[in-house]
Amino acid sequence: MRPSRRDFLKLASVCGISLSVAPVASAQVPDFTTRETLPGRGVAHPALGRVDGVAKVTGGKLYAADFRAADLPGWPATTHHALLVRAPDATHLYEGLDLAALPPQATPTLVVTAEDIKRIGARVPEFYAGDLFCPVGTTPLYLGQPVALLLFETFDAYDVARVAFRAGNLLKFGKETGPLAGANYGAFRFTRVAGAEPGAPDIYSPLQEGWISPGFVDGGSGRPIWRVLPDEKGPDYVKGAAYGEAIRAELEAVNPAVLTLDRSFETQSVDPMFLEPETGLAWYDPATKTLDMVIGVQSPFEAAEAVAHLLGAAQADHKPATINTRFCYVGGGFGGRDHTPFPLYVALAAMFFPGRPVRLAHDRFQQFQGGVKRHAFKMRSQIGVDRKSGLITAFAADHVLDGGGLANYSVSVAVVGATGAIGMYAVPKVDVTTVAEHTRGVTAGSMRGYGTLQTMTALETLVDEACTALSLDPIEFRRRNALKVGARTMTGNPYSVSVRAPEILDRLQTQAIWRDRAREKAAARSGFLIGTGVACAAKDYGTGADCSLGAVSIDPQGRVSINGDAVEMGNGIGTALANRVATHIGAIADEVTVAQIDVFDGLELVTSGDPYSISQADQDQAARDPRWVPAISSATSASIGAHVGTQAAAEAARVVFRFGLWPAALALWGVAPHDPRAERWTEAYWQGETLLFSGLPPLRLKALAAKAHEQGGVTGAMAHAFSRWAWAEATFALPEGEWSAEIDALAVRRGSGRYQRLDRKAVAFPPADYNRIGTAFASMCGTSVRIEIERATGILRIVKAYSVLECGKALVPEVVLGQAQGGFAMGVGYALLEDLPPFEDGPGNGTWNLGQYVVARGSDLPLHDLDIEVLPPLAANEPPKGMAEVVMIPVVPALLNAIFDATGHRFYALPVTPEMIKGVLA
């Protein structure tokens, strides 16, 4: 049985396709939505801990890899299989597949190639511009580019073919052409010159002048020319570059009063290494022209729209009338599942195998070959420090990113890495250039740390070297130079959130690892070296166009349900939603469903334009439509889960309380509407599921819910929120009175009725030019480590480690702790273990697995000697801040600084292996 039309959220109509996200109809086996809803009605759940904890540890079907066709009511029972074949060569002409070399039992039923994509009229979404499959007779654009999609009736046939392609040379290549050249994905320059006095206007900054890019590239290398050159198309660049070159001239001038350091640093490409490789399941029913998909991504809305665009102009027999996308929990993300092209291939597999459910699942070899990677960086950094005061006078850097074969998020990573290049410091003169290059390497994109891991590693090792040269205590140096509340970042704006660098530095200084470093170094065992290192970081969170969809409802028995569009990817977003809503509703939800957008059709949202580049005039005009929002849904990343992902649900919960539970409480107390106490709803508070108000009897949530339903009060609300470094605010008219909140769309349900959209009376979207600011939200973290190195082998052991961080209000303290521990482990892997060589020796050749790619294991970590401290919020109402990226960043330079302290040698490339350490000790 198909879901009724009213069960669909009509996201868009793309070239005649109804694009929807729909729940599966009920059946004897649990339907998809029931499986993904946690903890679930009637299912016991702990008062503390994660709402998804029981399902995860008991092996519930939650992830895309868990599902087969038989698990989905209404689908044919048999699952068929697809194999995505990728090119291990990007310097020769591709001449096709040698399918005759496959064992007979491994012959595919159907082979999909570039010719087939062209024949049916499929289109590549703009974000993924490039051939979905390498055409025969051309050179692959990059290593790991797909060349064909093989479809199989049985798993056995698929499995034999999978192993054969990995073991044999079944792709044919012709003459050598060399790699294809491609234009840079983007090049930018960020320059700031502060005013003569603190608080004075900047002389020049990106906030004032906008972002600039050079107008010329070198004819030989294709690199941008950063020099000041007359360019009638780019006078803005000439102005900014002139200030930038003056900063560099100052750094290169001989000045005995200033210490200047000029260093180069390189970071490597690494894999996100999430637990579950990318997997998807899809079924195209030609009878109803419906494409059903089950996938796990960080960006559900984008994935659904991308698939609709892919098939929107296809021939009739390959163009669905309806696309239903179901989004699973994600078995790890770390950025690598944000805007991944994988769902496009899942959709194509189903469309070319009509009537058969098809599963496309990467094994680890395939994930290494085709999954999104972290950008390798090459950086040159210059710093000037006044010898007398110990203050940084100027900083300049040049960044070159290897973006791989498709643009993906390379431009954004370049910008974030550049604007984060001075970390937590106040520097009056800054000039940073950055260029993201196209290469034949595996595509690089979003990953935890997002460019700042690379640039702040280079910065914090440079800062440590400056401290050594000036005989300054590293923590004291950081204290002198740390950004203060209200001081400006390198883009010319102050952070609009708390700045807690002094407290973090105080904690680092008094903690035993740092306090006892000299004594521990002197007490080293024979044959061993002891070193201590410290580093700090400030990491932005948010993108400048973040969205949140949330719905909260309560039934007559007091059972709470929450729906949100944020994705569970190991970040505990379901529990964060439940905890934040509970502060307003009084109970941990009985049902929490994430990565869901099928319940928000009541908002009737529309959008247009690009939220990052829209003009103020266009935004003002569009906002006249009470249904218009700058964007409907955005991708989930680790650092926006708490801040963004819970916003709409929290505001919806406030509406339910104010216009449903509070009027019910007044009725149960016998308080008349004109009684002054009726307006004091903000003074009520919850203790568990009991509402307390001074001088009146406690009320249980169940009684309040029953009364709210009886009175026809608001028992459900759904909301949309949008942030461009500040939340949009709107006012809505309800019969009980006006309501203003940090949302831009609202619908309410009364009693057991249907949701009704409320037109906003007024709305204030953040100004369009806020995106010129760069980042206005940031959280901070500091890390100290003590290491021990064996002289004879160079083997390094982390003896003790300490991280101190701030995250505003911690919605789920256990998850904050877990993210910090996981971030520490990822930092250790990045600094000491993980490495993907570029090009033909790297993962694009299809032979990489965990045999040669080493990640941090328990034996590499101080499992019982890692201390995590979370600073309490500055105030009870301080909002949650993103923290899951910042906790990784200082780990890497702290280890490098500790290695220097132990060996007297500085390393300027990652990872630092035992062989490298042994080499400098010989």
Pairing-aware structural class of the strands and helices? Answer: alpha+beta
Largest sheet properties: 9 strands, mixed
Please tally the helical runs, counting DSSP H or I stretches of 4 or more residues. Answer: 23
In whole angstroms, how far apart are the ends? 73 Å
The general outline is globular
Number of strands: 33
Helical amount: 25-40%
**Mean pLDDT across all residues, rounded?**
94
Question: Key features?
Answer:
26% helix, AldOxase/xan_DH_MoCoBD1, 922 residues, Ald_Oxase/Xan_DH_a/b_sf, seven-stranded mixed β-sheet, alpha+beta, disordered N terminus, iron ion binding
Describe the fold and architecture.
Pfam families: MoCoBD_1 (PF02738), MoCoBD_2 (PF20256). It comes from Ancylobacter polymorphus. GO terms for molecular function: iron ion binding; oxidoreductase activity. InterPro entries: Ald_Oxase/Xan_DH_a/b_sf, Ald_Oxase/xanthine_DH-like, AldOxase/xan_DH_MoCoBD1, AldOxase/xan_DH_MoCoBD2, AldOxase/xan_DH_Mopterin-bd_sf, TAT_signal. This is Molybdopterin-dependent oxidoreductase. This protein has about 900 residues and is an alpha+beta fold. The protein has a 9-stranded mixed sheet, sandwiched between helices. α16 links the parallel β20 and β21 (about 590-595). α12 (about 475-480) runs antiparallel to α13 (about 500-510). The radius of gyration is 28 Å and the shape is globular. The protein starts with 8 loop residues before the first strand and ends with a helix. Residues about 1-10 and about 20-25 have low confidence and may be disordered.
